[in-house]
Amino acid sequence: MNSSGIADYSPYNEEYGCNIFLHEGFPLPPGMTVKRVKELMEFEVRHDDVFIVGYPKSGTNWMQIAVAKMSDSWGTCKITDNGRVPVLELPSRPSLEGFEKCVDAPSPRLIKSHLPLKYFPPKRAETKCKVIYIARNPKDVCVSWFNMNKAFAPINFSLTFAEYVERFVQGKVFYSSYVDHVCDWRDLGLDDNVLHVTYEEMKADVVSVLRKITKFIGKSESNEEVAKIAESISFEKIKGSREQFNAATLDEKVSPFLRKGIIGDWKNHLTVAQNELFDKEIVEKLKQKDVNMIFE
Ligand code: PPS
User: Fold this and answer.
1) Which residue in the list 23, 47, 114, 269 is annotated as catalytic?
2) Residue 257 above 70 pLDDT?
3) How many domains does the chain have?
4) Residue range(s) defining the domain that contains residue 139
């Protein structure tokens, strides 16, 4: 293990342009291991667990801060050093609460994950646990994630934006294909205890989304309390309290973790050709599955 906590057994991979852990060819973040995958397959999901799940850079931290504020009794937040929500699949390290904190935590647990359905603990389906799945349009996700990869020194990221876009549309990035991630989770609905929300909905009307969530997780927040939470998690407010975020050690001079927080930043980055590639390889495939995203 090197000083960053990134495992040495996730070596640099030329094709991916960074350190990466490939599980039977499937790209997972460095720090994950064969042992961790096995642990996830056996992870004891509890009936009162609430999971926040989303492809990276979809607004999962924003969501976790909101949901954490909906109750004082989340066991996971209590046992973390600073009340943050642990990330299921990642190893705990000084800058990030991970798997070990999830296992140890008393109920009810609030847990975050970026895992695609096929790596998510299968015991989910046997319990009444709840999953809030947050999706964000893939063009903004790609821009946001490129910037985070650049700022995360331990992964030795070496790609230009153009090279990253090519890999993103092919699913050759951490957690693999955006389309598969969103569509596989989208196959599950309220009957499976999965609530779907989007980053763009949160931007348009955060109060409505939070009301939907309180109902879903069975909290009886008043309209006034929901409005108060909404106000306290605005981009400007939480940018000023970075410690609430469970994010890896980033060189924030390269790119801040709370970067822009807007819809449509992709327009400042994608060329016409790259935009067409996105439309062909991602947007069309999503539409075929009835998944329509908001891009501006
Ligand atoms: S991570 O690292 O994968 O867990 O990132 P995640 O938290 O899922 O997504 C990070 C992006 O969400 C933006 N963000 C917000 N946008 C609007 N309002 C609020 N309150 C907010 N909080 C976080 C964050 O800035 C990242 O997007 P970009 O486009 O990079 O700014």
Assistant:
1) 114
2) yes
3) 1
4) 12-288
Alpha-carbon distance 89 to 233, whole Å? 25
Does the annotation count 114 as an active-site position? yes
Return the best residue to mutate from 62, 175, 200, 242 for the ligand 1 pocket (most ligand atoms within 8 A of CB).
62
Residue 113, beta-bridge partner list:
53
For residue 182, what are the CA distances in angstroms to 130, 137, 293?
17, 10, 11
pLDDT digits (tens, 9 = 90+) for 206-237: 999 999 999 999 998 889 999 999 999 999 99
Residue 238: enclosing H or E segment and its boundaries? helix 235-239
Q: State pLDDT tens for residues 31-66.
A: 899 999 999 999 999 999 999 999 999 999 999 999
Q: Does any domain span residue 164?
A: yes
234 CA closest ligand 1 atom index: 20
Q: What residues are in contact with ligand 1 under a 6 Å CB criterion? A: 54, 56-62, 140, 144, 148, 233-235, 238, 247, 258-261, 265
**Backbone φ and ψ of 182, nearest 5°:** -65, -45
Which CATH number fits the domain that encloses residue 226? Answer: 3.40.50.300
Residue 273 lies in a domain: yes
**pTM value?**
0.95
What is the rounded CA–CA span in Å between residue 252 and residue 239? 12
CA–centroid distance, 62 to ligand 1, in Å, is 6
